[in-house]
Amino acid sequence: MFGLKDETILAKYVIKTHYIMRVIAFHPEDQTVDLIQETFEFCNTPVGEITVVNELGYEVNVGLLNPTVLKRIPVKQERWGQFEIQCCPQPGDTGYIEIFTNDISSWIKNGKLSIPSSDRHFVKDSSVFVPFIPNSVNKASDYPTDGKTLIIKSRGAKIVITDDGEKSDVSILADTMTVTAQDGVSITGDVTVEGTIHATTDVTAGGTNTSLTSHMHNYVEPKVPAEVQPGTTTVPISTGA
To answer: How does strand 18-27 pair with strand 94-99?
Structure first.
């Protein structure tokens, strides 16, 4: 059929490039995960449990496989130049693996080129893990739908960036926030504080960098009224009442 060999027809059915997987363990030292397959899969067998029709219209005997367990699969990360987004998948997290056409085991282990003569094509352990696929159970409840909002969040913290083309805003929500800037922090604009400001060293203000801790006000000793002479009348000081 179509001039293809039987082996090609059989291979057409077994080549798969993506699988839904669940994290069993995360290894931060080499940024890899152990995974278990979350979807059922049939595999070609000489005497299978059932007979199915493949993509080319041929009947193929298949059997149901046990869930696949993969060890030390690299986690796909966003990284460019000096920048990166670091993620730490946890047991129970789901995502999918992308399976490579060629053998990348040598490249993953030591950064060397793939083995050109390897006959390992489309094998599950020659893959990377892509974290998270939303479904009806784990989907985000606050997913932005206005086309102008970006949300970066954890269970207890959130950064919301909005930009409608005319005005932009960044909102940060967290229990605590620490800023460490060895060369200082610069703020241009008005600052509104609802709460208390604590400074462990000093606060300076104004063009002359007046210190809050060492600033002194001149104190003028009040003069004692002169002794009232006999026959004079004192004038009371108005209190404004």
So the answer is: antiparallel
